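Dear colleague,

Thank you for sharing your sequence with our group. We've completed the structure prediction you requested, and as agreed, I am returning the results in plain text so they can be pasted directly into your records. Please verify that the sequence below matches your submission; if there's any discrepancy, let me know and we will rerun it promptly.
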Amino acid sequence: MWDQLPHAENWLLFLENLGLYLSIDETSLSNGELYTIIINREAHGGKGAIVAIVKGTKADDVIAVVEQIPEEALQMVQEVTLDLSESMRKIVRRCFTSAIRVIDRFHIQKLACDAVQEIRIGHRLEAVQEETEARQEAKGLKKKYVSPTFV
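Please find the predicted structure tokens below.
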């Protein structure tokens, strides 16, 4: 009998897949149910990639599963890639104390794009305001407003 069958509905742990470089993230596998997945990045998504999969994203639930891995094995992990979630940060900080935490590039790119978008919107609002004021000034002077064109 498979030794993980009694708890397989809630979590799976594959100690043999643990490596030096891990990644942790949450995903929805079906019907909106969220799971936290820890993978060995060196497996490149192939056979032997999944280290742990835990139903839900509560840090304490994931920590309880990961803490079943022997401490000396957890200490060997050098790097864990994660998102900006406080839950993921807590898991990595508690379980992989020797590992460097790296924020995944998707989230950094999204933050940068959001910041650029915020600046762009600010400049656009400023330009609209300036044009409105120029139109009102031209109207007050009984002149025709001509919007600037850029060549």
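Summary note from our side: The CA atoms of residues 24 and 38 lie 4 Å apart.

Kind regards,
the structure core
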